[in-house]
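Tokens for non-specific serine/threonine protein kinase. Go.
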Amino acid sequence: MAVHQGTLIKQGAEARVYIAPFCGRKAIVKERFAKAYRHPALDKKLTSRRVTQEARCLNRCQKALIDTPTVYMVDVASSLIYMELIDGLSVREYMETDEGSTQAARTHIAEEIGRALGKMHNIDVVHGDLTTSNLLMRNNDSKSVVLIDFGLSYVSNLVEDKAVDLYVLERAFSSTHPNTEVMFEQILASYGTSCKASKQILKKLEEVRLRGRKRSMLG
């Protein structure tokens, strides 16, 4: 299947995302494109590495029963990943609906996010780009949170890397969703019960926050 048969739904700095047919169903096709400023051979090597790394992190999460899109096929030569199309809204969109703006819904979302991130960090996967646009709510009775867009993900057992992952999400919440401090604390509480190394990671998060505040003050 050629990508041009699909419908472009997102254009980012690193990749294009399409909805396209795959084996009789609709799927997401993520295409990483070449960077003109890089030497072609180096660009091909780096792009292939990123495609492989993203697919491996997704598969690692799937094996650990973390809700992520199922990978259908990886075409490294063409820099393509074919994966499950999730029926649902992003957490960002859901929180702006009447249903998603209730306290009960936000508590549920927070618990789901914290649990998912805790399980992800247990298997040493660092997402690298946690925002409420990269978290989806499945449109079913479970309303489970799905982690998507692992384009910057990598494997690391470092406490620092996992703390920074949480800090990126916290900054996304504060900039996109005002007055959600309580909700983020609920995320961290849920994370604390599901991540084995949460005590060390949350302590490191305090240090990361302090560094972030110092940078803000210095401009």
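The mean pLDDT is 92.
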